[in-house]
Known about the structure:
Elements: H1 2-31, E1 42-44, E2 47-51, E3 63-64, E4 67-76, E5 85-90, E6 96-101, E7 105-114, E8 117-128, H2 140-143, E9 145-153, E10 157-164, E11 169-176, E12 179-186, E13 201-206, E14 216-224, E15 230-236, E16 239-245, E17 252-258, E18 264-272, E19 276-284, E20 294-295, E21 298-303, E22 312-319, E23 325-331, E24 341-348
Parallel strand pairs: 16-20
Antiparallel strand pairs: 1-8, 2-4, 3-4, 4-24, 5-6, 6-7, 7-8, 9-10, 10-11, 11-12, 13-14, 14-15, 15-16, 17-18, 18-19, 19-21, 22-23, 23-24
Amino acid sequence: xxxxxxxxxxGYAALALALSIAAALLVAETAGAQKPVITDTKPIxxxxxxxxxxxxxxxxxxxxxxxxxRGGLVLSSLAEEFGGFSxxxxxxxGRRLFAVADTxxxxxxxxxxxxxxxxxxxxxxxxxxxxxxxxxxxxxRDRDAEAVALAEGSLTNGIVLIxxxxxxxxxxxxITEAGPSAPLHYLELPPEVKLRSNRGFEAVSVxxxxxxxxxxxxxxxxLKDDRGHHTGWIWLDGKPRKLFLKDIGGFDISDAAALDDGxxxxxxxxxxxxxxxxxxxxxxxxxxxSAGAVMQxxxxxxxxxxxxxxxxxxxxxxxxxxxxxxxxxxSDDNFHPFQRTILLQFTLEKELSTERGExxx
Length: 361
């Protein structure tokens, strides 16, 4: 009986949250509301409150399908530009974080741990993404950054890819400790992404292993073919070639992160007025990925509002101190007072990164 009451309470909370967010989004769309604009690079303070358990009813639960809970944080800041994060990448050790927001802002920070649990973000800076002439991106259609991936080097001396929606493009940016440069150049666009503003790039990654190592791969959020499959592209010899991911339950693709073996972790999200947000993590094996392929992948875990999730938009992968694969997921709070910027971390057992299996709850 107690369990049933708790579940009903979670259901009522999810409904209230869903209605609140839907109303806010409708008002914002109708009014053409502006999100915060950042024009200068500046240090900010980030407050991190721990999430002790991923399951709201069973706080001590550690295993979720094929994922093991490491820990999570609710992040906040007095900086008005903080929020709206849609893409994230961590360095190889999971110590340095770089995120992009749909406001045209970037965030860099150092992640500190208590053991293996994420504990805080330190030495955080925010700044504007810039146009080719070096000026900050200000117009809404220009600054809608949705995904980021490390293409070369490190987050203090390397190249990142940043994908944008509305004014569709994927740019290469040099990155240092001071943040990203103006774009060096843009990838050749597939013709399909020019059709509609909300069917552009939502996920981008660079394959880290296998025969297609160093190839860029990207997915649209809602663009499907006539079979109902999600549409993506892989760049071979600089040219985008289509590939597809089978749809499961009408979720949208939010992001993707590359694994060392050449596979991918794909983040998907769902939302409706009754149930609120949902999140799914899917593992795509290296041998599934090729131009023209229809990929299935394996569901690692699917979460709804019974769990500590929000509008989960960004995913990153790094190696833990014992060689384990660590998956980090970051949310977009839409600058809504009833939403949260949350960072979640899970371990994917090393031997599971290429084997097939069914997810369980």
